Amino acid sequence: MLTVDQQTALKNYIAGGGHWLGIHGAGGSRKHEWQWYPQQLLKAQFIGHPMFPQFQTGTIIIDNNQHPATQHLASHWQREEEWYSFDRSVRNIEGVEVLASLDESSYNPKLDLLMDNDHPLIWTHTIGKGIVFYTALGHQGSAYQEPEYKQLLENALQWLMQQ
User: Fold this and answer.
1) CA 84 → CA 10, 69, 160, distances in Å?
2) How far apart are the first and last CA of the chain?
3) What contacts 22, CB < 8 A, 6 or more positions away?
4) Which pLDDT score is estimated for 58?
């Protein structure tokens, strides 16, 4: 997706103090020739999402309602989404702060998409002097009309700009 020069520029930008906000599809590729992207930037590799139906209603658990990005959300947030699964939970990776997770009992994934009831959806971490914020939410255009989701993105951007 990026040339070698662009990859170097992104790594240097973030490590030097830049901020990166990834939304949904920014984490949704199973094939990365550039392993730094899933391993260091995202901290997890996308493995898939449910199909038939692709979009399902599920419940998001807000793990940290004190963070500026998620402080406006109730402890549980029900919405329809294309629920991304990853090869591992980022929760126990040093330096990663999970802000919200998916209640796996609230939707119907294929068994190979379950993450052992530890299914982070929104997290942040640092790389060098930089800050990464990722949300697996936001596939459908209608998401950007939802007050809670719009506020999440606005809060995340404001927080990143103030860091």
Assistant:
1) 24, 20, 23
2) 28
3) 41, 42, 132, 133, 134, 135
4) 98
Q: Are strands 46-48 and 120-127 parallel, antiparallel or unpaired?
A: unpaired
Average confidence (pLDDT) per 10 residues, the chain, 163 residues: 94 98 92 90 96 97 98 98 97 97 95 94 98 98 97 98 94
**Could you tell me if 46 and 27 are in contact, meaning their C-beta atoms sit under 8 angstroms apart?**
yes
Interatomic CA distance for residues 60 and 129, integer angstroms: 30
The pLDDT, as a whole number, for residue 94 is: 97
**Rounded CA separation 39/95 (Å):** 14
Encode burial over 9-29: b for 16+ CB neighbours within 10 A, e otherwise: ebbeebeeebbbbbbbebbbe
Nearest in space to 120 (alpha carbons), one of 55, 43, 56, 52: 43
Q: What local confidence, expressed as pLDDT, does residue 31 receive?
A: 82
Looking at residue 111, its pLDDT comes to 86
CA-wise closest residue to 44 among 117, 105, 121: 121
